[in-house]
UniProtKB/TrEMBL annotation:
Pfam family, one: Acetyltransf_1
Alphabetical list of CDD domains matching this protein: NAT_SF
InterPro entries: Acyl_CoA_acyltransferase, GNAT_dom, P-loop_NTPase
Domain N-acetyltransferase: 223-381
Lineage: Bacteria, Pseudomonadati, Planctomycetota, Planctomycetia, Pirellulales
MF terms (GO), sorted A to Z: acyltransferase activity, transferring groups other than amino-acyl groups
The protein, known as: N-acetyltransferase domain-containing protein
Amino acid sequence: MPSLEINVECPVHDSFRVQQVAGMFDVPLAEKLEQRFAVELPGDDEPWQVGLIVGPSGSGKSTVASQYYGERLYRGAEWPDDRAVIDCFGELPVRQVVELLTAVGFSSPPSWVKPYRVLSCGERFRCDLARALGRSCESRVSSSEIEVGSEQLVARSSELVTPVIAFDEFTSVVDRNVARACSMAIAKGIRRGSIGCRFVAVTCHYDVAEWLEADWVLDMATGELQRRRLRRPAIELEIHRCGVAPWRLFARHHYLSGSLTPGARCYLATWQGEPVTFCATLPVITKRNHRRFTRIVTLPDYQGMGIGMRVVAAVAELHRVEGLRINVTSSHPALIRHCERSSLWRTVNVKKSGASPSGSKRFPSYRSSTGRAVVSFEFVGAEN
């Protein structure tokens, strides 16, 4: 376990007002002001995945993180005003960028094609988080390029497989709902291995610790390092059958269309009284007692927490109890990945180029998936 001792000093520039303040508040003056930090941090070679450096403003969080993590500490970056955020991840393939954005709970493709400057504060924070994590992808690319080198380079490349990324001022600029959602989303991504790095949050907000499920916490207020795997609070949702009116709140966040077919069976999920997820189902045109999900949207502030697909599964179970079969068809990588991993869903169809154009001719009002790769899953429930 590395021990870190840091001495920070700055000169005192004498002036009349400095002397006044010193006299008014009995502040001792010297040529230099000094502060010392002595802490312990887990080493890179130790088995951990998520860490947290927390403490009040001025307690030395950023100083310690900067000294220990160096260039691995993300402090923000410039975003061009004339480019979409999806274009601002260097040479990373678009699928990898989508994985990063989804992993931090930014799952709204309509916002991916906008410039950073027009996004909300919460969306900007998620973009910064994704960009920081993108460094781990760049490290893996670099390591693969030098594996054929000398033994020394090969050894170095193996170290880069699971790099450490630290993020300063974590959740400092967002409301606490976004903070909880982002913390939970990134913890899930790290632990499932979809991001490919370890993560250290540096923040003054103690409330993110349990949502990050941090393996260790360095509290700069006391200087103590605690090794503990915190458990996040339970999320209890209420699902209501509703009309189409709540859709207005969710429509602009859907990745295909803001329209909703009249006669759709609609459901609204709330958390602590606040709307979080909307979904709707329609009959399958050519099959009796068979329905499909036509809209699934979780509001941006709550994306990344796993709420959306839990609501979908609950609504699907309601349909199954009625004796109805129900499918979900999507091109969204996060939804496809979830259903592939879940025992509640069974893959029934994969179309690399989407639906046949003939279906659109027979049913002009039906929005087909022609030209988009889609996967269809049927809900089978927990009993199968």
